[in-house]
Amino acid sequence: MAACTTTYFEPGRSWGARVAERNAELLARQQTRRRGVRTPEFYFAKHFDNSRLVKASDPVRVREMRVFTAAVTLLFSLIMIYGLQHFSAIESSYSVESEKQVRDQLREDNRQLRLAEAQLTQPDRIDGMARQLGLAEPQPGQVIHPSAHADTSAPALAQVTPPATPVQ
Can you say how many angstroms the Cα of residue 74 is from the centroid of all Cα atoms in its chain? Predict the structure, then answer.
């Protein structure tokens, strides 16, 4: 369809004259269709006056719309709850996996520390370091174990304990 170049707001011309002029222009611009037959196209102006119409309330339709809205809201809520649970489960699995990695790293660190402790507390290593510092093995009777029972037949060293001075 071709566009009409006529202005419909020209003063002094009637509506019918403008429509007739437009129809004539459209008929002149139409292209021939199949079989070379021209089909005329006419447009009629229709005027509807809806100013007197009043919308009547329909309680059945209002109830249907409320039920539909409640159903859609419930469905949306259920989908959102499912999504929340699903994504929180995924997040929890990621945090569990990261905690497992931290646990494995701590176990490896603990193993390394136990190995280092075992190397540092080797009696041969300690003995070698003591000899480098000029220390010798203790003589019999020099070492007194606090958990051992006192031997009454062995001589005991006398000890003097200084008296405690009162604080003024």
Answer: 24
